[in-house]
Amino acid sequence: MYDTAGVLSAATRTQAESVIATIEQRSASQVVVYTQVKPESDSQEAAEADARALIDQWGIGRKGFDDSLVILLDLDDSKCHGQAELYAGSGFKAAFMSDADRQSVFDDDMVPRLRDCDMDGAVLAALDAVDRATTPENAGRLQFARQLNALLGFGGILLAALLVVWWLWNWLRYGRDPVYTDDASIYMPAPPAKLTPATAALIMEGRSTRRALTTALLDLASRGELAFRHDGGILGLGAKVGIQMTRPDDADVHQRLIRRSPLGPAEQLALEKMMDIAAGEEDGYVDQPALLRFGKSVGEFDDRLEGGAVAGGWYARKPSSVIKAWRALGIVELVVAGLAFWGATQLPSDGLAVAAIAIGLAGGATLLGEKTLEQARSMQQVVAAKALPWVETPDQALVWGVALGLHRDVEQVLERTAEDDRRGVATNAWFPAWYASGAGGGSGGGASGGGGLMAGSAIPNFGGMFAALGTIGNSPSSSGGGGFGGGGSSGGGGAGGSF
To answer: Could you count the other beta carbons within 10 Å of the beta carbon of residue 171?
Structure first.
């Protein structure tokens, strides 16, 4: 009770303090009556700002509950006219008296008395209405709601942390690559059993991608099963890649070395599908339109490739199924976060909003972390550390280079070789003879003979070669102080007006 304007009688101040103490004892809410002479506060907005400042500076109301009410009289010099404000903290407004309730108290109970300059009667009438509204039942409802709000906030943060920890644990336990240790005592005479170049591409990417299919086709070409034909079109425009089915050359030493390793199930499927398509084409040549039919088999190829990786012990489950499961979990978390945030704005509930944000962050981490974080670090260290000892032919080097993500390096090496050959500073330069321009074709590796390997020029454009190979298998569709509790005014509301 603060009568700085000196407009209330001693009896009124005593009675008001008694009512305020009773309200606080019964409901724990804190009510302040404050009068002051302040002519410059001549609008409701100014009076509301004064009331908010009083709550914030004094910390009226319990922290976390914001169950405060300020009955403020901003008087002019006459001390009979001015602005009255009944400003409630968000908790008091939600549990005891809404903005409409307090406005009704001002209009019906206070204004008639204030216009007669009966400040005592106006203040006591307002306190009587507040006393009737602050029941134990409403106080209990406020306490339960605020405690639930806090539990939702901290519980949501804890749940999100557990989800992220669970995801990290799964990654550390199953998804992280082992640390690669290189030592002279460690022998690597050949790739591990059932590790085909396409499977290596799968492991490097963490999922089946177009690079795995390209690697499988290059593997088949290096074995003499097929050859690529690059048709450049008029003036090199509209370049396309076709496939010429061939027979392996048993007299080719390089092919015999490569064919010692059996085909994987995915590569075998790709060969069978390509042979089926070629059977209906002239001279066994599969042109670009016919290659589109191979796109229907890409899903089955990916499934076979992942199945082979599981059978070889590289994965416990197919990568696609694991990725889908984690993706579904991430989407569910984001949906739950969205619904929680919508609910937080409707209630409102800052605790639920915090929980929604935390769960949303966890969902984002789950969704974005569906792929192995270290990007197959150990295999990249193998590539960077030393040459692969099982590579015995140039064709194998090209295929394994593409499989291990070195296609850019392979392109650069081949382009440098082509440039040296063009300038005449290299002899017996190797180019993949199973990649030809026009009607030319063949199998196995060979030396350059002055060009004719690629479309549009005798000097090959290997960047275009790998870009064109990457299109094979595309489907047709893709070409506080004062003894108060530290409360605040945020979220509260004002009621009142001039008199």
So the answer is: 15
Question: Is there a domain that residue 221 lies in?
Answer: yes
Which residue type, as a one-letter code, is found at position 340?
A: A
SS3 258: helix
User: In this predicted model, what pLDDT tens digit does every residue of 109-122 receive, in sequence order?
Assistant: 999 999 999 999 99
Instruction: Compute the 3-state secondary structure of the chain and give helix, strand, coil in percent, each to the nearest 5.
Output: 55, 10, 35
Domain-ending residue, one of 117, 134, 151: 134
DSSP 3-state of 375? coil
Are residues 108 and 231 located together in one domain of the fold?
A: no
Q: Total domain count for the chain?
A: 2
Residue 187: other Cβ atoms inside 10 A: 8
Residues 457 and 115: their CA atoms lie apart, in Å, by 100
Q: How far apart are CA 472 and CA 468, in angstroms?
A: 7
For CA atoms 363, 368, 371, 372, give the dihedral sign.
negative
For residue 33, being part of any structural domain is answered with: yes
Task: Write down the pLDDT at residue 480.
Answer: 43
Residue 74's CATH number = 3.10.310.50
Query: Which structure tokens are listed for 87?
Result: 């400003």
Q: Is the link from the previous residue into 476 a cis peptide, with omega within 30 of 0?
A: no
Main-chain dihedrals φ then ψ at residue 86, nearest 5 degrees: -115, 95
Q: What is the pLDDT, as a whole number, of residue 269?
A: 94
Of 114, 134, 154, the last residue of a domain is 134
Domain boundaries, position 286:
204-315
Q: Are residues 109 and 211 in the same domain?
A: no
The bridge status of strand 68-75 relative to strand 430-432 is unpaired
Residue among 194, 234, 200, 230 nearest 215 (CA): 200
Tally of CB atoms within 10 A around 296: 12
For residue 184, give the DSSP letter.
Answer: T
pLDDT digits (tens, 9 = 90+) for 448-468: 443 333 333 434 455 555 565
pTM over 0.85: no
State the SS3 of 383-436. Answer: HHHCCCCCCCCHHHHHHHHHHCCCHHHHHHHHHHHHHHHHHCCCCCCEEECCEE
Question: Could you tell me if 19 and 129 lie in one domain?
Answer: yes
- Identify whether residues 213 and 118 lie together within a single domain: no
Decide if 229 is inside a domain: yes
Query: What pLDDT, in 10s, does the model give residues 58-104?
Result: 999 988 888 899 999 999 999 999 999 999 998 898 889 989 889 99
Nearest to 206 by CA among 331, 314, 363, 332: 314
Whether 116 and 225 share a structural domain = no
Q: Report yes or no on 290 lying in a domain.
A: yes
Query: Nearest Cα to 207, choosing from 303, 65, 349?
Result: 303
